[in-house]
Amino acid sequence: MANTRAPIVAITMGDPAGNGPELTVKALAHQDVYRRMRPVVVGDASMIEMACGIAGHPEMRVRRVERPDQARFEPGVIDVVHLDLIDADVFEYGRVSAMCGMAAFKSVVCAIELAMRGDVDATCTNALNKEAMNLALKPEGKHFAGHTEIYASYTGTSSYAMMLAFHDLRVVHVSTHCSLAEACRRVKTPRVLEVIKLANDACHRLGIEHPRIAVAGLNPHAGEGGLFGREEIDEIAPAIELAAADGIDVEGPLPPDSLFCKALGGWYDIVIAMYHDQGHIALKTVGFVYDRAARAWKAVEGVNVTLGLPIIRTSVDHGTGFDQAGKGRSNELSLLNALDFAARMASGEKEGHAQTS
């Protein structure tokens, strides 16, 4: 019996040539998922059907629906808003293709539209392959750097940022998918201030009443007083001062090489990273655990959340795993974490609306 009070979470299948479909099956094989949310997959049902065998769950059935309100949300049955996207005769696992790139893209757009209409309460995305997606979109004159930019475009959002979370380690980025040179150019006071405010709001939405925010420097040793660069003095510190004047508990700019250790130790609730790898490497070092003896990933954990959107979007914090796709070896922990995060955020929003209505 479905929990009719639980939020409806739309799960995109990701690039079907990757690990998204099998991870979806593995995650939904955990029957307790259905007690916390009502999951519905968006994508090509034939890919999910194929993934049931690959993931080691041939007992699971796939049920095709046209709309989320037709789903039954029963454990053991995967409801799929079916989009006829894949030609099985030319499909291959682990290969970049325009067909699979377009399939992943259309699944994401459909999930966004469902959320914007209120047909689902949150969205959760599996990984897509950026090369495949942009190969498919090139004839249409479109280009997207990733999920975040798709969501921003299709929701009309101009102020947004990426947050990664692993348990109580949370990181928000000033920039993500751009060159390192461009990332340095984007470290400007208005953007740093914007991200500090988005991080503060995110913490409040997660139930943290008095968030403690740390801001990383851009340069080694946070510039060492201008010795290794002036971005901290000219751009980052002014943003911190403005945020503090607005009542936000924020500290920095702090040396990036020791900041994340402090965050793990509980000094801060959230960290502002200046660019993609500064934040991603720190989080993935603790969230991704490789078992040397077994020569396999023991854990691949972490959640990607887009802040500033009018809808909820969480995601796995890993790629498409083309090298593992179709082999049934991919670990579903990150997707389970992302689903839980989406359900928590959606339930929190509902409670908030109920209190103010």
From TrEMBL:
GO terms for molecular function: 4-hydroxythreonine-4-phosphate dehydrogenase activity; metal ion binding; NAD binding. Keywords: Metal-binding, NAD, Oxidoreductase. Coiled coil: none annotated. Pfam families: PdxA. Its EC number is 1.1.1.262. It is an enzyme of class 1 (oxidoreductase). The keyword ATP-binding does not apply. Belongs to the PdxA family. PdxA2 subfamily. This is 4-hydroxythreonine-4-phosphate dehydrogenase.
